[in-house]
Amino acid sequence: MKQMTPSSYPKRMKSENFGTLQLTQTWNKYGSCPDGTIPIRRKGKNNKPIPLGEHNRLKALSYETHDTSKKDDIPENHEYATISVDGNFLGAQAKINLWKPVTEAQEMSISQIWVAAGDINERNTIEAGWAVDQDTYGDDRTRFFIYWTADGYNNTGCGNLMCEGFVQTTSDICLGGDFTDVSTLNGDQKDASFNIHKDESNGHWWVQLQGIPVGYYPSSLFTTLSKTAKKVIWGGEIYNGRSKGRHTSTQMGSGHFPSEGELKTSSYFSWVKVVDEDNVTKDPKFFYEGISNPNCYDLKIDNLNYHTNGFSFYYGGPGYNDKCQ
């Protein structure tokens, strides 16, 4: 039987603040869905399922733990700036700053949360965040997306509703739909809260956007994620195709380094939390940073604004520059 709402939610710390910003997607301007239906983005000529195993750029970093101090251990054609924690978790959440980064052809820029479990060939992941991906969507708009795999991105999983798996329950949010508003440099900042958590009653993994339950991945889809997540990752990733014979100029986040100025310049994750085995949200502890090339994209923990932003960090960069070749 289809479940319409989560039967349990993570227990929040009193200090948490996800705000009251009303989140809208462009399609909301043109109407709403009748009861009992969900919004589905029309498939244009570029919006097509990409066969798993054939498109390397979709193999996100979370399927393997990389030692960024060793060049040979960095996944080919990927650059990233993240923080990660290992342990036993029932979910994760964060507010992610919304931007519209510039991307080169056939490349993507994403900012998201990963929850994962299992060794490389059986890696299970659930992912949620925003992406600019012209090759998939046919434009450069900032879009809400989700993704899953149960075998290291080899034969199972997909993004949004491009294959069976995710059970959408809300008519208010469109998977793959673009956000109406994004942040502007030195101007208004827009963000949205993203949440992945496991239902304690039946084990389904729910995805929420701005506090709205979007739907769930049934527990039966997974093997290693059927119990708990073993790794959680937050941050940005780009695909670097080097089509011009040099490092890509695809931007991550706002396209500006944390060192250029934080508030209203660099992109951020705030109110970063894990959901522990007792279903309580907590700050990540014993985390480690994964920065593939700080000359291209970097990350900086925010140690000054905990009372207003919770555990947070700034991240991103422009890609190609004098030091990033």
UniProtKB/TrEMBL annotation:
Signal peptide coordinates: none
Judging by the UniProt lineage, the source's domain of life is Eukaryota
Where the record annotates domain Neprosin PEP catalytic, the positions are: 68-325
Bilayer-crossing regions:
none
The record's annotation in PANTHER family points to:
LIGASE, PUTATIVE (DUF239)-RELATED, PROTEIN, PUTATIVE (DUF239)-RELATED-RELATED
Name used for this protein in its record? Neprosin PEP catalytic domain-containing protein
Organism taxonomic ancestry = Eukaryota, Viridiplantae, Streptophyta, Embryophyta, Tracheophyta
